[in-house]
Amino acid sequence: MPHKKTLIAVLVSLVLAASGCAEDDPKPSGLDGRSEAGTDASDGGVADIFVDGQGGCLSWHKLVAPANNNKPSCVAEADEYQPANTANDTWPACISDDNTYHRVLPDISSIARVAGFEGIVAKLLVGAKNPTAQDFVDARVIYSEPEGLDSRVSRREDEHVPAAAKVCADMTQSEIDANAERCVGQAQIQPLLNKAFADGANGLEPLDNAARIEAGLLWFLYVSTYKEAFTCTNVTKDCDSSYAYYTGGEARAGGKGLARYVREVSTQAHDRVFDGILAVRCWRDLDPDVPAKDTARRDQALAQMDKALLRGIALLVKARVSVLPLICEAHRPAAWITVQILGRVLDRAARARNTTLADLLKNAIASPTPPSSTVQIQAALDGLFPCP
User: Fold this and answer.
1) Pairwise CA distance, residues 183 & 116, whole Å
2) How far apart are CA 388 and CA 268, in angstroms?
3) Please, which residues have CB within 8 angstroms of residue 311's CB and are 6 or more apart in sequence?
4) Are 100 and 274 in contact (CB under 8 A)?
5) Which residue numbers in the chain have pLDDT < 50?
6) How far is CA 220 from CA 48, 131, 149, in A?
7) How far apart are CA 155 and CA 262, in angstroms?
8) Would you list the DSSP string of 344-388?
């Protein structure tokens, strides 16, 4: 029913234009049945517009690039690595200067985990339909594959947080709970996913639990991209894992997993994340010792990559909240759940930047139901994470 898709496109344009600014193009993408990255919405993919009893409306997982997603005013900082402009950056010549990621080793096991994420998403994000109990069972099988996602979620530590006295894997449950930010896998992501898989398999809240699984796994992919880049200090091949957790092993122009999501909401943010990943690889090329010695350049590369990742996550949150009025009523709680989970991921960095805006964002997403207006949330996200 093309006329209903056209109506949705007009409505989305009005909603997003109201929150945009004259400097940037607020035109949304993906409203003609195809996403910015080319996902066909007619095949049950992750970018569906459909018609239900309310007329035309959006599924909870429809990604629409929000206003101000690609800002011309956002340029690389003077000390950042610029693989497309290496003659004018401040970094020495290195392996990444051809704008391509060069693997440390030919095989990267993390690629299979991102493929697992895509398999889970394909099972649970099924357009106008609710995922069935069997869909959750099948998705859990993918999640639980040997050396798959569960094996890494269960031991993931967040390297943004100072290390505890011992590794999380050696802690008691009470110690894990006391170090919940560092032991993010065991304390936060794994319980979220385990309950969502179990409840979904029992037929409970299928849309909401699909949303919890999607957001929980995106959280894991973000933390893992940063963690592996950091631990590349001592294990050089972890640079490959960082690259793979973001891209799924693909080149800049492609991308699976988190890269696919970020690219759909902002090609600019995606490109800057990829630049950051190349900066990490460049650092390790310039500093090949084990352990690495040039931690100042490492931290510079990590900061560049993480700034872009945070902008990407912020735009994913903004993408969901900016079209809440256009999401089908039965799907709206699921969309809000993803906002709450991914919004919580942003809190640490938000608090380090501006406590007032961080509190505003935290309090707004704490509401059990979506607010009537999300203008303040969008403004806080733009204020906290303005550029990649």
Assistant:
1) 23
2) 8
3) 266, 269, 272, 385, 386, 387, 388
4) no
5) 1-8, 10-12, 14-48, 50-54
6) 24, 22, 9
7) 25
8) HHTHHHHHHH-HHHHHHHHHHHTSSS--S--HHHHHHHHHHS---
- Cβ-based neighbour number of residue 227 at 10 Å: 23
**What pLDDT is stored for residue 55 in this prediction?**
58
- Structure token digits, residue 356: 């007032």
Give the C-alpha separation, 8 to 6, whole Å.
5
- What count of residues does the chain have? 388
Q: Amino acid letter at 313?
A: I
Continuous H helices in the chain: 2-19, 110-124, 133-143, 149-153, 173-178, 184, 190-201, 206-231, 238-247, 258-265, 267-286, 295-322, 332-345, 347-353, 355-365, 375-384
Measured between alpha carbons, how far is 318 from 78 in angstroms, rounded to an integer?
28
For residue 66, cis peptide bond before it (omega within 30 degrees of 0)? no
pTM confidence score: 0.89
The torsion angles phi and psi of 12, rounded to 5 degrees, stand at -65, -40
CA-angle at 58, arms to 118 and 45, nearest 5° = 25
- pLDDT on residue 126: 81
Q: Contact, 339 vs 320, CB < 8 A?
A: yes
Integer Cα distance of 372 and 166 in angstroms: 45
Place of tokens 């050696």: 170
User: Angle at Cα 277 formed by Cα 272 and Cα 280, nearest 5°?
Assistant: 130
| Residue in this structure with the two tokens 């099988």, named with its chain if needed | 141
Write the CA distances from 208 to 46, 71, 212, 333, integer angstroms.
Answer: 15, 33, 6, 7
Amino acid at 276: G
The predicted structure's pLDDT at residue 168 = 97
Range 138-176 burial, b when 16+ CB lie within 10 A, else e: bbbebbeeeebbbebbeebbbbbeeebeeebeebeeeeb
Interatomic CA distance for residues 195 and 208, integer angstroms:
12
Is the CB of residue 199 less than 8 Å from the CB of residue 205?
Answer: yes
Q: How far is CA 374 from the centre of its chain?
A: 20
Give the pLDDT of residue 23.
36
